[in-house]
Amino acid sequence: MRESGMGGGGRWRLQLLLFLLPPCPTPGLGQCKGQSLANSLPSKAQPGAEMAASGRGLCKAVAASPFPAWRRAHSEARGGLKPEYDAVVIGAGHNGLVAAAYLQRLGVNTAVFETRHVIGGAAVTEEIIPEFKFSRASYLLSLLRPQIYTDLELKKHGLRLHLRNPHSFTPMLEEGAGGKVPRSLLLGTDMAENQKQIAQFSRKDAQAFPRYEEFMHCLALAIDPLLDVAPVDMAAFQRGSLLQRIRSLSTLKPLLKAGRILGAQLPRYYEFLTAPITKVLDQWFESEPLKATLATDAVIGAMTSPCTPGSGYVLLHHVMGGLEGTPGAWGYVQGGMGALSDAIARSATTHGASIFTEKTVAKVQVNSEGCVQGIVLEDGTEVRSKVVLSSASPQITFLKLTPQEWLPEEFVERISQLDTRSPVTKINVAVDRLPSFLAAPNAPGGQPLPHHQCSMHLNCEDTLLLHQAFEDAMDGLPSHRPLIELCIPSSLDPTLAPAGCHVVSLFTQYTPYTLAGGKAWDEQERNAYADRVFDCIEAYAPGFKDSVVGRDILTPPDLERIFGLPGGNIFHCAMTLDQLYFARPVPLHSGYRCPLQGLYLCGSGAHPGGGVMGAAGRNAAHVVFGDLKSM
């Protein structure tokens, strides 16, 4: 019987009650002396609550100014920098901005401090080449949590999206028989058309593809509940009081929900997450172009091969998003990724948050009792606060900004050992015309065709090519045939480039952080690698090199130097199973809190990880708000 061994209805009601109990605050956080925030919070602190007058000047400036938030955040913050806030956020990346926006809406007076002249972190738009506006680092949107769109009213604050359909294009390098053009694989939302495309390579695969998509959709549904809450509170289970242990049982609810969704298929999904993606895809398909196209999502941004165990999770991470109600959809942000950051910033500042650019945080200040009391800027300015949230990487937060004497040695050692290897070199290119592919020649008028809006996968005809590219990097060499994901956002958003021209995003790998023999990247090495990438594109789209107006080359060290990405890693640290969920960034400290009371991690190095998701910022803000109420 289904209820056998459950002890009857009384026990079920007890379990339901435990699930509804709120998570417990950090033990001892309220022991730090200082003014209680409880009396200053609105009695009904809901999103949209009226804020204190202290931030209204910036709110009016936002409403009146036609310029992006990052251009005016520092110069038009009326009243300037204050000596004290309720909360300080280090870094104006998208997670930091999301955290600030939620806290401010909850009545917590919040200030954000950003080192660069522009907000957004890696979600930024920059005019590197005159009149060409690039999403210089991140370049696509899908993973941003649906609640964030709604809660922060991002459309009201100017966010506009261009959904892509079709979304994936993989051209072949093959001799056209009898004057025929080479084959290509074009995938979108129309399943019948997808099957027709796949059938060029395998009818069996065409029949299997809908079942594979349903399999992936079910796994994404199971993971979804885990993304919007802190992980299971293992510290409370191990060291908390009896009441704290009982309350922490509520954090098991998302895990149990995930288990119910997966049901009897759990072993298959476990294999997917732990096996090499090549093994998984071999069980589903036989055609290499399809397998390699799907495998790109398992290695993108990761220093892993499709043959690496656990590469399946990275694939899942990239397919569990969606846009405007369409699961798995990816799109371009009107005006580039910086427009997303601007919309989040407007949401925050409209409710009274302060955002300061070109203000570098030098260290986190700690009082004599071991509690955070604010930050010190690089110019020596002290800013007091009850809590500090860092959207910087775990390494910068805990190894550079936090006084080491306040952190346990074991914690510091674990942070220093995080895997931050990155294979990525991002190349932003301005061109005076669209690339014309042998597999899909341009229209006579040169207008964008459906495949131009896609992620175009080059050197991806075979999973062996991806593995060989990875092995080159393991030898300290840039890949001889690098994996190239080519996107042309101006194909859907003409505001990014002059008429007839386009911006091209090249997300390429594998490139090691340090070259063979300990050699560092220099201008000659950068240009040699970019030339190799361009030669590869030229083979698929003759004339591409002649169309280039200018380029911006960002190797792993460049991504680290400009955007603060450790090792150039776009996720802050690897998205491997040993660095996920209750082990992100390290075990026992996955709930956004850290050993130092009042300091929180809210960036991609925290659960649930990287990508323009915003979940870490949102989750951290709610944890902080709960702790502040108990102070």
UniProtKB/TrEMBL annotation:
Any one of the GO CC terms: mitochondrial matrix
GO molecular function, a single term: oxidoreductase activity
Amine oxidase domain: residues covered: 327-435
BP GO annotations: mitochondrion organization
UniProt keyword annotations, A-Z: FAD, Flavoprotein, Signal
Signal peptide: 1-30
InterPro entries the UniProt entry points to: Amino_oxidase, FAD/NAD-bd_sf
Location in the cell: Mitochondrion matrix
Function text: Probable oxidoreductase that may play a role as regulator of mitochondrial function.
Family: Belongs to the carotenoid/retinoid oxidoreductase family.
Subunit: Interacts with COX5B; this interaction may contribute to localize PYROXD2 to the inner face of the inner mitochondrial membrane.
The protein's name in its UniProt record: Pyridine nucleotide-disulfide oxidoreductase domain-containing protein 2
Gene coding for it: PYROXD2
